[in-house]
Amino acid sequence: MRRTPPWPARLTWLAAALLSVPALRSALHGHSEAVRWVAATELWVLWTVALVATLVPRSVSLTVYRTIAPLSLVAAVWAAFDHASATAAALAVAGSAAATVVACSRFTTDAFVDGSSYGSEQRFGLRTPLFLLVGPVPLAWLVTVVGLAGPLLLAAQQWLVGAVLTAFGIGVARYSTRSLHALARRWVVFVPAGVVLHDPLVLADAILLPRRQIVALGPALADTTATDLTDGAPGLVLEVQLADAVELGVREGRHAAADPVATDRLLFTPLRPGALLDAAANRRVSVG
User: Fold this and answer.
1) What is the predicted pLDDT for the residue at 85?
2) Residue 255 pLDDT > 60, yes or no?
3) What residues pair up with 219 in beta bridges, in sequence order?
4) Does the residue 288 lie in any domain?
5) How many domains does the chain have?
6) Are 98 and 199 contained in the same domain?
């Protein structure tokens, strides 16, 4: 199975870096040498790490890239309000906005997720539940990156606030990054034996649905009574019907339910349902 490299992510990230340099250089010109040095170091380190992430697409790389890419937009907007020329600022904002949109797109997610596949596996990402998108995810991202402002404040001799932010960033980023990475570890996997549903947010353990047991896989009807594993994620819901019931360890909060759930119908929401159904048909999974 051929993997699709995330070329849009690579190209837009390179473009964002090239377009942002004039605006950032202009905005930093009026600051002290220490601030300029720290800012330049952070920017180049982050840009290099994100570039490496696009060159080695994996689920871990996806978390790294989706964390860093929005920072380019934040930096570009800051430069636009900090004495950068109008043209340079507009180019920087446009380039970084494009990189951020591509980083969060479903095609990029699937390319990175599938990069973690083994052998003939093929992976497709699952949509993030809506309740996470409207609050917890942005908050976790903010907590992850806010510590980067600490060294800048220290360089500007804002000792107390800089020290607090630096310590906070070091102490909390590890936990918030783990929460963000959980979103990149949610997928449907086509394996030689059938289909595996891997969703740590909803399931205590991944489940294998043998191909010979799958009666049909396709869009769910509005009045379906299947077990809902979408967790409220928006988008087209797919339903898989099984010949025999399987037992699931469904999570209730952070812990698995006391009793497993037996069901012969499951609902899930992939990022690209059309591509997933095409892959299912190619792998002789009953689609309908």
Assistant:
1) 79
2) no
3) 238
4) no
5) 3
6) no
pTM for this one? 0.91
Q: Are 204 and 249 in contact (CB under 8 A)?
A: yes
State the DSSP string of 140-175: HHHHHHGGGHHHHHHHTT-HHHHHHHHHHHHHHHHH
Q: Contact, 190 vs 280, CB < 8 A?
A: yes
pLDDT exceeds cutoff 70 at 1? no
| Long-range contacts at 70-75 (CB < 8 A, ≥ 24 apart) | 70/100, 70/103, 70/141, 71/46, 71/145, 71/148, 72/16, 72/17, 72/20, 72/47, 72/96, 72/99, 72/100, 73/97, 73/99, 73/100, 75/20, 75/24, 75/43
pLDDT of 237 reads 97
Per-residue pLDDT at 37 exceeds 90:
yes
- Whether 67 and 181 map to the same domain: the answer is no
The reply to whether 81 and 53 lie within a common domain is yes
Question: Residue 148 belongs to what domain range?
Answer: 126-185
- How far CA 276 is from CA of 120, 129, 136, in Å, comes to 15, 19, 28
Residue 287 lies inside a defined structural domain of this protein: no
- Cα–Cα distance, 278 to 259 (Å, whole number): 35
The widest CA-to-CA distance across the chain, in whole angstroms, is 69
Q: What are the structure tokens assigned to 263, written together?
A: 């069901």
